[in-house]
Amino acid sequence: MAHQQQSNNILDAVQLLADHGFDEMSQALQILFNEADEAGTFPNTSVPNRINAA
Predict the structure, then answer these.
(1) CA dist 41 to 19, 21, 33, 50, 54, Å?
(2) Which domain of life is it from (predicted)?
(3) What Cα–Cα distance (Å) separates residue 4 from each residue in 10, 15, 18, 31?
(4) What pTM value is reported for the model?
(5) How many C-beta atoms lie closer than 10 Å to residue 14's C-beta?
(6) Which of 31, 21, 23 is CA-nearest to residue 52?
């Protein structure tokens, strides 16, 4: 079930870009980075989340 949610989140990010172009790039990247973080792709999780700080 978690894999299906991950796929949906990635599709949401792609759909944001398809619908709104670069206007929604930050939101799409936030979704993708969150997915990568949850998947354990980032080796150092102590790095502050700078996307939300903007």
Answers:
(1) 27, 26, 9, 17, 23
(2) Bacteria
(3) 10, 16, 21, 15
(4) 0.57
(5) 13
(6) 31
d(CA 28, CA 54): 14
Q: Where are the domains of the chain?
A: 2-53
Lowest mean pLDDT among 3-12, 19-28, 29-38: 3-12
Q: Cα 37 to the chain's mean position, in Å?
A: 9
Calpha distance 49→33 (Å, rounded): 10
Q: What are 24's two structure tokens?
A: 């929604």
CA-CA distance, 50 to 13, in Å (whole number)?
18
Both tokens assigned to 45: 């999780």
> Beta-carbon neighbour count of residue 28 at 10 Å?
19
